[in-house]
TrEMBL record:
EC category name: transferase
E.C. code: 2.7.13.3
Kinase among keywords: yes
GO molecular function, one term: phosphorelay sensor kinase activity
A Pfam family recorded for this sequence: HATPase_c
Keyword field: Kinase, Membrane, Phosphoprotein, Transferase, Transmembrane, Transmembrane helix, Two-component regulatory system
Phylogenetic placement of the source organism: Bacteria, Bacillati, Actinomycetota, Actinomycetes, Micrococcales
Localisation: Cell membrane
Residue ranges of the TM segments: 20-44, 71-94
Domain Histidine kinase, residue spans: 114-323
Any GO CC annotation of this UniProt entry: plasma membrane
Protein name: histidine kinase
């Protein structure tokens, strides 16, 4: 949302709150006054006589008196009731008025946590690339290749941030992506991390598939799935990526050889901040798979655990084919 949109939301909330307070106050006062008038009329008597207002013989200009002892409890009771009612109205109005602020703070916290997670993997990859460059420089070796990879990783970070900013504004920008290019980009981004973990990443022969999802979003999803697979695979194991067409969907599969997902973790594996058993490597924040699901759903796709056992887990990312 833009700043103008935020101001419009605040103005509308203020108008709703003002209308609520004014309307509730008017109703409370009208009811209180009405009850008080009924009490006064019913308890009044003509001055010097026993006739009540409106009774036979009661003419215009007659004076009536009211016993204070009869009316005072009603006045005090209605006053206290009015204070309570207006207090409840003020409490409800205050909650209503801060709702846009609460929504804004929730979106802000969500964006910060998502950005921290999404940029964490590229930053780790950048650090690893820098270490490679330093080692090659110290040995007098060529550094052109790792420097080019550094530039590529920095561009990915810029693309990811731009995509997240659009997502935070509630926009799903149009675009298409070649699955093979997205998978290769994800593999290249995490190659140094895989090497550090002693995990081999293997991409099977990928068919020529184009999906109706922007390339940066597909790369984000593939990177998150591959990062999750590397983080839960033992040293010396292999993570395999493949792709195929199933009806109107492209299916990207990421298979690891880890210990699998526990039965207690499986129902909440795609929830935010849900974490399974740690592998002893980089600590996860439980956001990667949740972000993959949100991104896939936004473009009409889905992510699922195709199978999981002590021999490993297979995640299947289904995305709609480009029309």
């Amino acid at each position: 949302m833009s700043a103008d949109d935020d101001r419009l939301v605040v103005r509308r909330a203020a108008l709703r709150v003002g209308t609520l307070v004014a309307g509730a106050s008017a109703v409370a006062i009208a009811l209180g006054v009405g009850i008080l008038v009924v009490v006064l009329v019913s308890g009044a008597r003509a001055e010097g006589g026993g006739r009540r207002p409106g009774g036979a013989g009661g003419g215009i200009g007659d004076r009536f008196v009211v016993d204070l002892d009869d009316v005072l409890p009603w006045v005090l009771g209605l006053g206290m009731a009015g204070v309570i009612v207006l207090g409840l109205v003020g409490w409800a109005a205050a909650r209503w008025s801060v709702r846009p602020l609460d929504d804004a703070l929730r979106r802000q916290r969500r964006f910060v946590s998502d950005a921290s997670h999404e940029l964490r993997t590229p930053l780790t990859a950048l650090t690893s690339r820098i270490q490679i460059v330093q080692r090659r420089q110290s040995r007098g070796e060529a550094t052109d290749e790792p420097l080019e990879q550094l530039r590529h990783d920095a561009q990915i970070m810029d693309d990811v941030l731009a995509d997240m900013l659009l997502t935070a504004e509630g926009l799903a920008h149009a675009g298409t992506a070649r699955v093979d290019d997205a998978v290769r980009t994800a593999v290249a981004t995490l190659s140094s991390l895989a090497d550090e973990s002693g995990v081999t990443v293997r991409a099977e022969e990928l068919p020529d598939i184009t999906v109706g999802v922007p390339a940066v979003t597909v790369v984000r999803m593939c990177t998150a799935l591959l990062d999750n697979a590397i983080g839960h695979s033992p040293t010396g194991s292999t993570v395999t990526l493949s792709a195929a067409v199933d009806a109107d969907d492209a299916v990207i599969r990421v298979q690891d050889t880890g210990s699998g997902i526990g039965d207690e973790d499986l129902p909440r594996i795609f929830e935010r901040f849900a974490r399974g058993t740690e592998s002893g490597r980089r600590r996860g924040f439980g956001l990667g798979l949740a972000l993959v699901r949100e991104a896939a759903t936004r473009y009409g796709g889905r992510i699922e655990v195709e199978r999981s056992s002590a021999a490993g887990t297979v995640f299947a990312l289904r995305l709609p084919l480009a029309r």
